[in-house]
Amino acid sequence: MEKKTVNVSSGASKVESLEKENAATVANGGKTAKAAPKKSGVKSVKTQVTTEKTVKTPKTKKTAAEKKEEKAAEKRLAAAKTKAEKKEKKLLHKAELKQKKLEKKMAIKEKKLAKKEAIAKKKAERKQARLDHAAALKERKVERKAERIARREMLKNESKADRRARIEREKKEKIALKRQKALAREKQREQRMKAREAAHERRAQERRHKREQKTERKKHAPGFGGWLAAVISLGVACLALGAVVTAGAFRMNDMTLETANGYRSTLYELVAASEDMDSNLSKLRVSSGANEQRTLLTDILVDSELMESALERMPIDSVTSTDISSFVNKTGSYCRNLLGKINRGQPLTQTERNTVEYLYNINAGLYSELNDMTTHMTEKDFMAFIGGGEGVVSEKFGEVGQSTLQEPEETIDAPFSGEGNVGTNRLAAEEEISESRAEELVKEYLQNYHIANTQYTGETLAHEVTCYNFTLTDESGNEIFAQITKNGGKLAFFDTYEECTEKNFDLDTCDSLAREFLSGLGIENVAAVWLSDGGMVADITYVSVQNGVRVYPDLIRVRVCESKGRVVGMDAMGYLLNHDPARSIGTAMSRESAQAKLSAGLKPYSAHLAIIPLNGEEVLAHEFACTYGEEEYVVYLDAETGEELQVYRVRSSARGSFLR
Q1: pTM, two decimal places
Q2: Is 465 in contact with 487 (CB distance < 8 Å)?
Q3: Residue percentage of the chain with pLDDT more than 70
Q4: What CA dihedral angle connects 93, 98, 101 and 102, to 10 degrees?
Q5: Residue 262 — pLDDT band, cuts 50, 70, 90?
């Protein structure tokens, strides 16, 4: 039998042999396969043992090394994996930080951009608001101009009855507005009273709470035993002193009550007199009969004296008392003068009626305020007032005093302006013209105004004269309102609005421009009797001159823009109604004789012979412009008798000079 050689030099061979043996064992049912018998039994066994021993030992050592190596490899792999994860996490965190930084930067950039857009939007809104405001102002300006033209036209055309109705309506509107304001003030006063009551209640609750706390603390305080006698003695003394003080207080309260009742009665007397004067002035402004006017003026004189007496007994400050007393005294003095004039058989002029209207408006406001005060004042307010303290009643009296300082709204800005027709209507004899002819004439009269469009707007009857109305538009879009008389085709009135903001022309130059314009209308031989330049517009009043005599019924008013140097308005109705080239002028006393009849203290610096309108007739008079101290007056004396006919006081304001 061939000898079997076992290679034990290679671990791999040993492993292969072991695997084969294990496979054979499994094939034999778990028994180890026996080798074929050898010739020499001892050698075979030895060889087998040696083989088994040689194979088994290297297998155990290699497995442990491999396991150790595998564990080391696993640890290295885990360490590498952990390191890779940390690195990846670090990179990811770094990327997140960078992303957040970029997002923050973008947010800041977007915020700045949004801020810029908001600022730009606000600027645009403010600019648009300014443009809207300017447009609204311009539109309002146009509306006010239209309202002025419409009101001027309405005032020209309204009758006496319409005028009375308008004034009454405006009065009711003013009263309604004042009533609304009074209700609003009353509501505010009630709210303040409620707030004060709530505050008082809150403070009372706080005081009660403090008293309760104090009482609670006293419950735990030590007894007062030894103080009982002292408290009883002090109580007896307090009772005695209280009796004395109470008796004095009763007497003081009686005196205070008597004083309060006296002042309250005086206040009601003042309100009643003001109410009666309001009624009488309201009747006087519409009365035309001499007997009724005489009765009303007498009643107003009595009312003014009653009001003055009541004011002297009221505890108001000297400034307020002076303001109200000044108005009451002026009213009484003026009514006394009117009463003397009526007793002489002379009717009231339009200027005097305007003054009566002014007095009525002021007194109506005075009565309304006083009545409102007495109706709504509380007992506390009244007691503070009579005590000399500041309060609602004192403030109300101050407001009433200020309301009497208003300037009259209707004043005249030239002597005898607004008198209208005196005697015969000179236009009635003129030939009537057609509407088309009137349109041709208005274009001729205003040919230097570059008229682009002409529109006929109807007819108007005023001062017994019928006029054709036209609205013209120049090449710049400015509107001109003009009136052409139906009889004779004369330019009676025109007006246009032009913005005049600079003074480029003085009054003398404006006078020359106005005379040139009048000359183009065929009006010559005029004298400028009144010049005023309020608001950068020269307002010049002219009258015709005949044989060196100023004729005031022939009155013309011209307005000249001092910025552009052109006529922007004219009213020649008085001239067209009254001008008579063949007018006869009577004889007059000498200027020296007339001047001697002037009131003492008046110093004349100018004198003219003039024809003035008086009671619907023309009267020859001496005109004197005088000074009295620092004041200026214009006085007219009858040229035949030297009797004083009319006195004007020259006043100045921001709108120019005017007469009172």
Answers
A1: 0.45
A2: yes
A3: 69
A4: -140
A5: low
